[in-house]
Amino acid sequence: MRYLYGEPRSRAEVRDVLATRAQHPTIEKEGDWLFLAMERRDSGVVIGDVSLHWLSAEHKQGEIGFVRHLDHHGQGYGHEAAGEMLRLGFAGLGLHRIIGRCDARNDASARLMERLRMRREAHFRQNEFFKGEWADEYVYALLATEWEANDRS
After folding, report:
1. What digits encode the pLDDT tens for the residues 73-125?
2. By CB neighbour count within 10 A (0-12 exposed, 13-18 middle, 19+ buried), where does 72 fall?
3. Residue 118 has what DSSP assignment?
4. Are 89 and 56 in contact (CB under 8 A)?
5. Where exactly are the structural domains of the chain?
6. Quick one: 150 exposed, middle or buried, by C-beta within 10 A (0-12, 13-18, 19+)?
7. For 33-61, how does the pLDDT look when each residue is reduced to its tens digit (9 = 90+)?
């Protein structure tokens, strides 16, 4: 939770969030969010989530996000899930550009976006007062043409 905006939730709060997200199982228009659980095939344990936000219909832009439990970092689950969200955004929605953002201290998220062949486009210095301190932010991006070239290789 160190790099997330919220604080840990109770089971009841998690149930409420999941119930709200379950009411919106598709992404159809600008402003919509799609959240999907990351679940291990071998155990059925939920280990995180991945999201896609349709930012702009006019500019054909979206944003991906992901959260993984620390015990499941570095095992390819985030890469697989985020890669599918990129596929959905580009091939499914016809987006032109998808971004991802992370706290500059969050090495795991930055490495994941780089493994997805996203390019770091910005390093905003102390752009947010986050959990009691000024924090830097990285912004990564990938264009549909880059995704298509990567998908073929």
Report:
1. 777 888 999 999 999 999 999 999 999 999 999 998 999 999 999 999 999 99
2. middle
3. -
4. no
5. 11-152
6. middle
7. 998 888 888 898 888 889 999 999 999 99
Query: 11-152 has which CATH code?
Result: 3.40.630.30
Phi, psi of 8 (to 5 degrees): -55, 140
- Write out the two tokens for 80: 């697989």
β-pair partners for 51: 35, 65
Sequence-separated (6 or more) residues with CB below 8 Å from residue 58: 30
Closest alpha carbon to 37 in 72, 1, 2: 72
Residue 61 Cα distances to 21, 48, 54, 65, angstroms: 21, 24, 6, 14
